Amino acid sequence: MNGEPRLFPDLNAGATLADLISSLELKGDRIAVEHNGAIIQRKDWSTHPVAENDRLEVVHFVGGGTESAPSSCARASPGHRVRSAPSPTLDMVILRTAARRQGMKTRAAALFLPAFIVFGTTIVNAQDPAAPQVRSYASASINQLDPAHPSAPMGQPTIVVNEIRPGSDLKIVAYGDSRFTDPADDTDASPRPRKWLVDRIAKEAPDAIFFSGDMPFMGDDPADWQVFQHETEPWRAAHLRLYPAIGNHELARDPMRGLQNYFANFPYLHEHRWYSVQLGNVYLIVLDSFWAPVPGTAQRQWLESQLANLPATADFVFFLSHMPLVTDIQTQMAVSLPTPDQIELRNYIEGQSQHSHAKFVVVNGHIHNYERYERKGVSYIVTGGGGAKPYPVMVRANDDLYQQPGFPNFHYLVIEVHGKHAKVTMNRIIDPQAELLKSEVRETFTLDAKE
Questions:
Q1: 3-class secondary structure, 103
Q2: How far is it, in rounded angstroms, from Cα 394 to Cα 408?
Q3: How far out from the chain centre does Cα 185 lie?
Q4: pLDDT score at 30
Q5: Average pLDDT, the chain
Q6: Which H/E stretch holds residue 173?
Q7: Distance separating alpha carbons of residues 241 and 283, to the nearest angstrom
Q8: Over 50-71, what HEC string results?
């Protein structure tokens, strides 16, 4: 179990996984289990047999949350500290339930997930090394920001790109999760693929870039934003339009300072955390995942007014936000994403799609990989391969329309709109370790507007 031999004298022949979990006195809703290399769904535990010499990995979910949101780290070996990646929307962290032998290779496999994940023999708190728990980056002060920033205008686009007329051909790049930070930091990010993608996108010369969030590594750190400005200079030189969504890393550690830095870098947003853009026959709705647009909130009222007043010329409506509304099975099991609020939003969007004249497309990030789904006429794309530390998706269910092998998936999407049809290509770096980086078109699919 978790790399160590373990005896279970109380288990009889014919024992099931549920019996083993009971023997460990673990709460079934707080763990995920990998048995002989396969993740076993909770509903199958009572019928799934276990036997001598089986290999088990058990992942424990530990509750957390604090106003001060201290930095935390994992001690993997004597004298070696690894900074972990914050996720302020999650009030939990994931850690191994048993210590590993020093020097033993960690089998990350399906447990590398888009959350605060820590592997090692000891979990310590940077402010209090004696503390027995790792504390979350979630901040109770986040909601205090809600009244401080203005809402975008109701019932009309926040930004209108007059240069792009309805019926004009349109080229859009969509991607996210770049984690701009010190180029010497190749633990939290992948600086070489990150910069290469930026330069390639500049050469694509799109009419707009839809960025799904997590632009800096630490949003409260001006140095990370300086790296963003420096590395994306080719975009400004080419006068590219950039429309970002707020990710959890924009709010890392100090959310208020993170938002200040965010708006300082994007003054044309006029401090709107959610906003809309009209580009020809494409209507972009950018949502803030961290003030969930549930019924009764200012963001939901704004969203309702946007959908009730869509321009007749809008053939495609893109919803851009950071947290995914549809995810792979390992993310569902290990970090409980999507959350109930995100599922409610998904159901709302799908319901509105049935009555809209436009084709709805949802673009999310957070998962440092690529996934694609279709539900009730709505297309869902997860594009988080912009240069952050990659996460493998070891279990792709049948509803994931992308089933290609290969890892990591550093990539960007090109969306070419021609009237009521759009061609989408997923452009992926072939080998991030190669001396000369090159890309390939890994997937092509179409989006068709309603007739």
A1: coil
A2: 11
A3: 20
A4: 55
A5: 80
A6: strand 170-175
A7: 14
A8: CCCCCCEEEEEEEECCCCCCCC
